[in-house]
Amino acid sequence: MYRTIICGIGTGSRQTAIRLLRRAAALADEGGSIVVMHVIENIPRRHLTELPEAFETTAIVDAEKKLASLCKEMGILATIEVRIGIAASQLVSVAREKSADLILLSSHVTDITDYVFSSIVDKVVRHAGCSVLIDRRLDHAYEGAASQAEDVALF
After folding, report:
1. In what order do the strands lie in the sheet with 79-85?
2. Domain total for the chain?
3. Taking Cα atoms as reference points, which of 42, 150, 32, 39 lies closest to residue 90?
4. 83: which strand partners?
5. pTM above threshold 0.85
């Protein structure tokens, strides 16, 4: 169905990441490509002096390893992209760079910050030059309490 899919994996649960990766694999054309992307949000400059010098590099390498391991575990061939910046802008930029025809994201429980600042999903939907698929399944409703107890955060 889709030639190039950007699969945005946020700081949610491992369960959500697995669900998104399965969906991306199911929607990708034969010979198509999946770009698994994670964005490490910008750190305010006033906090940089409190962090080790190699914080950003370490965070990128750690995220790449986790995503590559998960893809390998699931048998999904994908390119891993980890960037630092504003998540919505980075997702839209990578989609444009890769000529993607789909961005796949998950939603989360809305909170007050979404009303004040708008959510990442809202911004991506408004600015993407390609289709956007939003997985709205919330983890607490996914596969019952037994699997939920085993679930851990990916990041």
Report:
1. 79-85, 28-41, 2-8, 102-106, 131-135
2. 1
3. 39
4. 39
5. no
